[in-house]
């Protein structure tokens, strides 16, 4: 079921957004695959072990710098390997969705991507403009969140 949810997320994102940055497409699909559904709610549970794994990758120097990762295409993604790329993308999306302020920013970012689905759009530059403090702040905030190792469950 996880794989099915993951692949359906790709279909839905492609239909809604068109061309989506790889890290965001895979990161959102990773979040969706972790969802548990009950009646009218969905929860992505606290990702304790997962976050520790990503923190370990970061401490070991195996994660590429944020700007490099954001610009990666499929060939680069495959080169660093799924054991690095998928957790990295998932952790960034979980981070973005965890707080109301970042969730609002992410919603606006997704809506902007949808508005540009048929036109050229510099995803990285847009994220740099809308994230308070730019990509350097995003990278620092994500790293601090990761180091804390206490991510919250996502509920909707």
UniProtKB/TrEMBL annotation:
SUPFAM superfamilies: Metalloproteases ('zincins'), catalytic domain
Protein's name according to its UniProt entry: Peptidase MA superfamily protein
Organism the protein comes from: Thiocapsa roseopersicina
